[in-house]
Amino acid sequence: MTILVTGSAGHLGEALMIRLRAAGEAALGLDIKPSRFTDRVGSIADRDFVRRCMAGVRAVLHTATLHKPHVATHAAQDFLDTNVTGTLALLEEAAAAGVGAFVFTSTTSAFGAALTPAPGEPAAWITETVAPVPRNIYGVTKVAAESLCELAFRRQRLPVIVLRTSRFFPEADDEAAVRDAYETANVQANEMLHRRVDLADVVEAHLLAAGKAAAIGFGRYIVSATTPFSPDDLGPLRRDAAAVVRRLFPDCEALYAARGWRLVPQIDRVYVNDRARAALDWRPRCDFRHVLDSLRAGTDFRSPLARAVGSKGYHAASFGQAPYPVG
């Protein structure tokens, strides 16, 4: 029996294919773009194509999506076609084929406006209980697809796990002000405190979710690096985040200074992975302590898998000095 990976030409899809094939698993890569890990080229919105790909599949790892960087280059209908219609086709065909587990890669961007507290308010403590307030078509379609996943479990008893992943892409930030103020590695190291996860840890969460889906039935979990912060830190994080980090990690200042790095002055949200760790027995290896230990050792804090997959970008075209046509 085969594990079907959608989006096999993307960051996560390729990483899953690498991991599965290294373990000797039968894995079928599906993507609209050819790649060395894409076995079937076609659209997930093509119901006949999806049905043919589902033969002999025991689990689906659905990573294919239009992302936030596509908002400026793709129509709303494109997002609906891929993120909603494509997910519906996969869910229904998986249920019809008797697939035993379906894992849907969602995003913490689904929380949208709930991530940004009002001025003067403490940082937001983001758990699965926070209601999404999508602020663009990307968030709207991912939330809609999550609802389809839950419906597929309730109506067709297809075991589905939704993983709301935080940032794991290696590309530079999509905001020009952030790119101008910090080098990319500095930005991503800071994000490991509250809103980033290493690609290898995301892969592990997906594989664990596939193994536990039948027992769980339906679940929705945040997949982000384990934060060192507690709810008591939320007020101080909006006022002076660097002071909070220096208190928790006294060695940070010297290690950062040696690289010419800086901490951010404020943090507005903290993603909490407690439920994913408990329900999936997931133990993410990369956190901010790992970042500092890597700086001390003079090594890259990214996992070997993240470095092997590398940067893929989101568009065939370039946009001046920016990696995306926004910010």
What does this structure look like?
With 327 residues, this protein is an alpha/beta fold. It contains twelve helices and nine strands. It has a seven-stranded parallel β-sheet with strand order 3-2-1-4-5-7-8, sandwiched between helices. Helix 3 runs parallel beside helix 4. Its EC number is 5.1.3.2.
CATH C-level name:
Alpha Beta
* Cα gyration radius (Å): 19 Å
How far is the N terminus from the C terminus? Answer: 44 Å
CATH architecture: 3-Layer(aba) Sandwich
- Helix content class: 40-55%
What structural class should be given to the helix and strand makeup? alpha/beta
Residue windows where pLDDT falls under 50 for at least 5 positions: none
How confident is the prediction overall: mean pLDDT? 94
- Order of helices and strands, N to C? EHEEHEHEEHEHHHEHHEHHH
Strand content: 5-15%
Q: What's the total count of β strands?
A: 9
Biggest sheet, spatial arrangement of strands: 3-2-1-4-5-7-8
CATH topology name = Rossmann fold
